[in-house]
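Posting this for the archive.
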Amino acid sequence: MMRNLAVGVVTILLVVAQLPSGLTLPSTVPAFLWSPHQDGLLNSRMKEAVNYQTLSSKEFANSVMSEGGWSSLLCSGNEAQQPLDLALLFVGSELQSSDICGAKHADSELVDFLKVSFTRANFSLAFPYIAASENEEVMESMLISEFTETCGHNFGASKVAFLESCSLEGGNYEKLADLHTVNDYLVSRMENRQKGQADLVVACQGSSHSERQIFSELINSVEQSGARYTVLYVSDPVRSIQYPSFRELERFLAESSPGNESIDSRVCDGVCQIKSSLLEGLLVGIALLIILISGLCCMMGIDTPTRFETPQDS
């Protein structure tokens, strides 16, 4: 009985140790909404807020419209007295909720850029836990659909433009080729936009640059155009699960290049040391557990006599 129990425990430990990290716990991603213009979001009465609930993608979109005040920008029936000129939506794949605290796999430059932009804004709203949708629809397409459904026929965004790296189908959307085209588009819209209209620009992480580079260049272009804006950054759960991060992919390609002689495969970097330490701890733990269970089995197998013979008189 004890021997079978020991074998079962060791087998379970070995199976759990071989599971990928993405299958052990459900992953969630964060989102951050902010605006440097305090009087632009009249629907948002608080200056700083955090929604600690685990939200589905649909619930997240509804919160952005109601709590974030985007309904006053995107719905023509809810015109604000001092509306913003631009709503910028950036969809990435680098961050998961665990990266915000531990920064184990996160791009530290991206996290620092988000922290600085978020804390310096006049209005900020954070959504730390967003779960993947059941139909695995990409985030930008799902958000636009929810925005349109919420506003109904009053979806009054004057223009919806998106980078080619995003996946948007249908609708009267303007496709932008690259970041230089985005800059020209923003300047043109500032000259031709009528008062009371707001544009929606959707950008996604491309394959040629990191999120921090693309996102910071977009923010710089928006600020240089002079537009009054609000920003929504969200990491897509579908992209985060299916594809490796830019830094992990970059490291893998650099180490696996056949002609790269500058990288010594015998050197164990930070990621290697963490993995080796975890593996050593796991092996030592399994060995100690086997020793403990074996000792218990041996103790259970000892049969002590129930009676002793009476010593004979000499």
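The longest helix spans residues 270-301. Strands lie at 29-35, 48-50, 86-92, 123-130, 159-163, 174-176, 199-204, 229-235.
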